[in-house]
């Protein structure tokens, strides 16, 4: 009798171990495409793991055009991705108001809280959705492009060539980046290294959307949304005063770069749109 009991116990244990292998797993839930049907699809942009030889270009206009052509598709793609996230945020908020949050909704909220650097134990309430909506928004393309040009010397700086860092972003773990020349003996910051330029763009935009130094920029942008006005680089650029020790002088320099380079960017955008249309057309 005792032996039979032991055998039965072993059989039950083995069955318990094997059962998960025979229960079909539920496939991951697909996003509801209707939520983002009003938006363009997120472009499939090539991952850039090296920088072009911008320093070899002696013609200034040629260099600028090449720089903007290289970077603009990544910026556009990241902004469209953010707009998709905003659409899903609105969709999830609607279910929150109805008291019908799903497990997938709660997972999304947890992911957003982490990505947008909010407190982990923050309550799921109207305040949370308001904070997420303020942080989860686009950065004007011209602002991103001229900052990248300014901070990287048009893609020729050591940090952009060796670290794929076009925005001078810092990190604070030893070995996370490149040690800047002239860093004080007690300094511990490095200029971050990235695996791709795409990653650098995404990290910069996340930084602008989360760091406390750029709260005024986010508040300006939020007010533009409330007033149904366009979100432009000229309007938001004032919110970057903390980005550089030069403060107001830095802002004025970026404004001048926007004014001078906007026609070049518009021409580049038109050329890229034409190329995309040609590729999409039936052969």
In words, what does this structure look like?
By secondary structure, this protein is an all-alpha fold. Helices cover 58% and strands 2% of the residues. Helix 2 crosses helix 7 (197-210), helix 2 packs across helix 10 (248-280) and helix 5 packs across helix 10. The radius of gyration is 24 Å and the shape is globular. Residues 5-29 have low confidence and may be disordered.
What's a quick, concise take on this entry?
This protein is mainly α.
Order of helices and strands: HHHHHHEEEHHHH
Q: What's the number of extended β-strand segments?
A: 3
**Structural class by secondary-structure content:** mainly alpha
Measure the end-to-end span.
Answer: 78 Å
The largest pleated sheet is described as: 3 strands, antiparallel
**Helical proportion?**
55-70%
Strand content: under 5%
- What is the gyration radius calculated from CA atoms? 24 Å
The chain-level mean pLDDT equals 88
Our count of helices gives: 10
The spatial strand order of the largest sheet comes to 1-3-2
Q: What key phrases describe this protein's structure?
A:
3 strands; 10 helices; 58% helix; mainly alpha
Question: Secondary-structure blueprint of this entry?
Answer:
Layout: H1 2-22, H2 60-97, H3 103-115, H4 126-135, H5 141-152, H6 158-163, E1 170-171, E2 177-178, E3 190-192, H7 197-210, H8 215-226, H9 233-236, H10 248-280
Antiparallel strand pairs: 1-3, 2-3
Helix pairs in contact: 2-5, 2-7, 2-10, 5-10
